[in-house]
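Side project, low priority. Logging it here so it doesn't get lost.
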Amino acid sequence: MAKVLFVMTGVDHWTLADGTRHPTGYWAEEFAAPYEAFTAAGHDIVVATPGAVVPPIDRGSLAPDANGGPEGAEKIAETLRKATELSHPIDLGAVDLAEYDAVYYPGGHGPMEDLAVNAVSGELLNAALASGKPLGVVCHAPAALLATADADGKSPFAGYRITGFTNAEETQAGFADKAKWLLQDRLVALGLDFQAGAPWAPHIEVDRNLYTGQNPASSAPLAAELLKAL
């Protein structure tokens, strides 16, 4: 039995270029699919957020059209109801990486707001990469990698092959022209080898101990790869 740390956003909004706050949080499927996979395999999950706040959910991710219909939406909602770990997160600043066998970051636009500039998360990511433990990051959560850069703008993740929510997907979602910055652009600028798959299709990249997924549909395949590593 392994112990997996889920690092999640603690904000319920994403500040757009014009200063307005778009309601968001974490994306349901990106928590629920890996949660189901890990717990079914007998692994323990601990949720950590900045300040130990209960992670807010993006309400749009609970809609039937985001889950393949009403049945899928109810299944996701049931998973979230039984995931008591969501109600009792620990403070990200209190995490001891040595206690965990793997680290996983679900997405949603929330990480674009807080984890992208969270130094504690950045240090944890750098330590997880150096440890060789499986590190999974999906969709918008690679925004957290922006906080891994040092004072000179250099990140230990530079040169790693990665994927994440693409410019094409952000455009199709209607946010590309409203965002302060685009995730794909910033990751490329950080020196990562960004690989974009077809919009909305499952796509994962594995480079050494870094496992990344492009979008919500990639979260289940990503969890399967992490389970192999565990």
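Brief comment: Helices lie at 28-40, 70-82, 110-113, 119-131, 167-172, 183-189, 219-229.
Revisit when time allows.
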